[in-house]
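question for whoever is on the cluster today: can someone run the full assembly for these? three chains, 905 residues total. i dont have access anymore since they changed the login thing
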Amino acid sequence: MSAASLAHAGAAEAHATSTGLNSRKMLFWAFLGSECMFFGSLISTYLVYRGRDATGPHPHEVLNIPFTSVSAFVLLMSSLTMVLALAAVQRGNNRGARIWLAATALLGMTFIAGQCFEFTEFFYDGLKLQGNLFGCTFFVLTGFHGTHVTVGVIWLWTLFGMAMRNRLPRERSLDVEIAGLYWHFVDVVWIAIFTLIYLIQ
Amino acid sequence: MSESTEPHAHSKEHGHPGAKEYLAIATILTVLTAIEVAVFYIPSMKPMLVPTLLTLSAVKFALVAMFYMHLKFDHRLFSWLFVVPMLLAAAVILALLKLFGHW
Amino acid sequence: MATTAAAVPAHAHGESGLWSWVTTVDHKRIGVLYGTTAFVFFLIGGLEALVMRLQLVRPDNTLVSPDFFNQLFTMHGTTMIFLAVMPLSASFFNFVVPLMIGARDVAFPRLNAFSYWVFLLGAVFLNLSFFLGGAPNVGWFAYSNLTSSQYSPGHGVDFWAVGLQILGIASLAAAFNFIVTIINLRAPGMKLMRMPVFVWMTLVTSFLIILAFPVITVALVFLLFDRLTGTNFFVPAAGADPVLWQHLFWLFGHPEVYILILPAMGIVSEVLPTFSRKPLFGYPVVVYSGIFIGFMGWGVWSHHMFSVGLGPFADSFFALTTMLIAIPTGVKIFNWIATVWGGRVELKTPMLFALGFIAMFTMGGLSGFMHASPPADLQQTDTYFVVAHIHYVLFGGAIMGIFAGIYYWFPKVTGRLLNERLGKIHFWGMLIAMNVTFFPMHFVGLLGMPRRVYTYAPNMGFEGMNQVSTIGALLLVPALLVFVWNLVTSARSGKPAGNDPWGGATLEWAIPSPPPPYNFGSIPRVGSLDPLWHKESREAALASNQVRGHIHMPPPSYWPAVSALGITLLMSGMVFGWWFGVPGAILMLLGVYSWAYEPCT
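^ ran it for u. tokens below:
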């Protein structure tokens, strides 16, 4: 993409709007609102079915709080690196952008790796998707969350690739900001899941 | 009627957080998480477990939303677009819990 | 009205040819695509109903098998709701809303095109079920655990669930688009409380969509997991509760009925003032009532479940909230009546349909209010009494409102008027036929005739009224044929409409019919509600026809269609297997990435 079209992209962003707010950012916040209902329904189902299992395994037999606390911490730190990545892009600091975008993606991948490990452990403890209610509600809820994280990781690596090709200047910081909103939302959903599913049993 | 990405020229005047503030938030989030886990393990905290954890999580949620997602400094409309659906989702959770006899 | 050709980029002039339709991002063309497709599915849904009526014309009839009858009522409901009424409303959102707010297009034109293509492909996918093992046969609300793979073997339910997921994507994308468009793309001076009521109703409907569809998405996810992978979300033996499906479904389903009716209410709120030569009575109250209905609609869902045994607390709570929601609805009706009262009424066809809406919707609202009492509902539920209610509000309400909109805005879309005489024949024929069809259902329902059963025994006292209903349904056919004839001949040789055949109040009547691709030569400045009825705003609106400065229109693109095809193939893989799913995923990624990298200016 040439400098001219980059400038053009920047100019395109400056289309006058009734509120003075950016349309893409507004769209994305509306989307996050919608996602609240999505995860809310998944969490509701988990909570409604909790304690109704005649057969095990049950949460207290399977959930590993220390391990999950660490992965929760990893995801929280990834929000820090994400916001530092955005700050870097906003300052036109391409090197910083690359470092922090990569850091966020890597922390996200660490989280996913942790989930994979955790789920495998649960599987060998007897918790199956097709098993009891705890199995299906837990795996579908956390599975969708993990899928969201994965999509976010792909998104971040895409942005990283753009930064590597010097195509993430200050004028495109909105792209990173929106990716950031997505990433923080996914983190915030994990805060809710960690508390409601792991800590409050 | 212009683009909303704030140039950093006025960041300090408008209280827009910088790296230091972000790190401080991250530290608070870590500490809160540690407290949550501690509350989980300390037997004497058992009776207060649920309200304490819910409160601590709500604070973490709010910190990420207000500072990392920048809602505190952005136009109120974005907050409304997010908070109203979030409250609706919370209401749905509570309603379903009640309908299925959990409280 | 001088236009400077040089100021308008070449691709903004009317494009022609099939490819131009596939790649269009113009909201007006997308509106036409939605409207045409939806109308075809409306006729298909009508055909499904007609066959049911023929089956029910006499007791112990054998026109169709019991299972095929089940497929018919399932597909009739699903088609009318998701493939007819919603996309017909969407066609109005698309064509009219940008014009009414003084915009050149929606906020995200490619996303707009994407919504349409996903809708079309989803609709086709769902209907393929008829030819591939049988359509879904579990009712449009698909209660579990009838829908489990044990009790519904075969692919019918899979087609239904996957089809709705696909259609959900289309609705969500469109809703996000309209929320941003309405909040962010209004002409200078068009404050929120100066927006036409139709735009307000579009906004409320869009919020309902983005909040309600995720819930049914989750319900469908659970259903598909149960059917395709053997999970136990709705398996009683594992401790699950099939009633959870009902809660999740109706948490979506009740807001959905407001999604179905609010746009039509918006249309009626535009038509009545125009043909009464009088502004809408109590504009702010009508707007706030619409908003209240949107909020309160979240608190009533279990009134669809009064016979499930939720207990006295739940039943009482939902009975109360359901009765309360009649209030803002009633308020709107009073405001509409007050609008017409004392006006210089012109009984043109749009006005007839709008007045018909008020009468028929009120009747449907009264039977609805009767359902709000749980003890009464225990007799009414699952009988034809509810079928009567539904059709008075959805046929007498939503569909008549939509026809009001079609007759009202057809001139703007095509530049030609629909024939008035044929319009009146259509209206009266449809009004009479509709009442002949559905009014007897109140009685036969209270006598105990159950819904969704392919036949009934003789000597139950049902025959006479069923015969009447079937005659009514058959009478609908000529009325609709008159409309189709009108549509086709008027599009070709109807009277030229000019910019403003009705003397309307809103911005779309200031520009040519059909509008140029860029809508407004220059964006008008709006000084009041009903701009064309106020001197200064009217002058500004008319002056907007003059092209001033460079007009920048988004170029056409095929990535929305490619992405739509990719997503549909990906999701159809759940029914057809990975050899559909994998190419679908690849196509979707290709489409989405290309779309993201395509310059959008």
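summary bc i know u wont read the tokens: Chain B is about 65% helix and 0% strand. Chain B has a mean pLDDT of 87.
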